[in-house]
Design a protein that fits this description.
alpha+beta; Thrombin, subunit H; 6-stranded antiparallel β-barrel; 3 helices; 6 strands; 30% strand
Length: 181
């Protein structure tokens, strides 16, 4: 029992260290020192591997070294506006840089969409713009993604970055400590 609590506390400390560095880097957009950058990258890769090992988290790539943001699996209902068309969707993963949207009506590559994320229980009502950077129209058995699109956030304010950061951090803790996200 004590060993389990110690592991839990150690993981929590690592998450807190990552969150502090990630906030500086991706919310405040302040440069990290070389040492901070190395720590951030090691922590991001460690957390990514922990997430990847969890059953049902096939929506994450096996390797994540090149990404500037930690992607975390979620299941969050949202809506997006593509031109004049409003569509319901589910977010399947989220990072400070974007989301994967599971939808039967994927917008075209390079489309600019407006995404609304509303989570009443958490008091979150966020509307952000994003550019469709990847379209998965026909999922295959080899792909862990359903039909949908990868969207890169564009033009976010610091307030919007803070809210997205909070969503990512909440999902990270939920995933690693066995809560539903």
């Amino acid at each position: 029992m004590n060993e389990t609590i110690q592991k839990h506390d150690f993981l929590f400390e690592l998450i807190e260290m990552f969150k502090a560095l990630d906030y500086k880097k991706n919310v405040l957009k302040e440069p990290l020192t070389t040492e901070e950058r190395e720590s951030w990258l090691e922590l991001k890769n460690f957390l990514h591997l922990r997430l990847q090992k969890k059953p049902g988290n096939a929506v994450l790539p096996k390797e994540d070294d090149h990404r500037e943001f930690l992607r975390v699996p979620v299941t969050v209902k949202a809506t997006f506006l593509n031109g004049k068309d409003l569509a319901d969707c589910y977010l399947k993963n989220i990072s400070g840089g974007g989301v994967f949207i599971d939808t039967d009506n994927p917008p075209l590559l390079d489309s600019i969409i407006t995404l609304r994320i509303f989570i009443k229980e958490k008091g979150i009502d966020l509307t952000v713009s994003g550019c469709v950077v990847w379209v998965n129209e026909k999922p295959s058995k080899e792909s862990s993604f359903g039909k949908g699109v990868g969207v890169k956030f564009v033009g976010m304010s610091i307030t919007e970055r803070k809210i997205v950061n909070e969503l990512v951090n909440d999902a990270l803790v939920d995933q690693l400590f066995e809560k539903k996200s």
